[in-house]
Amino acid sequence: VLRLHEKQNSAGGRERADVPAVKEKVPYLQLFPVLLSVFTFFFSLMMVLPFLPFMTKDFVDRPRNELGYYAGFLNSAFSLGDFFGSTVWGTLADRYGRRPIMIMSPVFSSMFVLLFSYSQSFAWAVAARQ
Fold first, then answer.
1. Residue 105 CA, distance from chain mean position
2. How far apart are CA 115 and CA 124, in angstroms?
């Protein structure tokens, strides 16, 4: 990492000089809520993929060649919910601060993963994925 400093040259003008920066400690404790939030997001997104076709087969009474459509719809419900929910989380973060929202986000994400795991119907699974 280079910090740019200005210095005066012999003609009286200013020029930039590249000076090596001092290494700073990484604030791991302050980054933990961010890392936890990112981990729970990707865990929630990817953890259902191995058993999603089997779950869809149990929920939807359709021919086997149509199950991919329903499995894709169920998987895309997560991204759709994230698309609309991110504006809500952003508004709440502006109103109440980033720290409480960064702590609540993984908690709610884990709660909805648990609700999804107990879903008994396709509609319940889609609602829990959002």
1. 9
2. 9
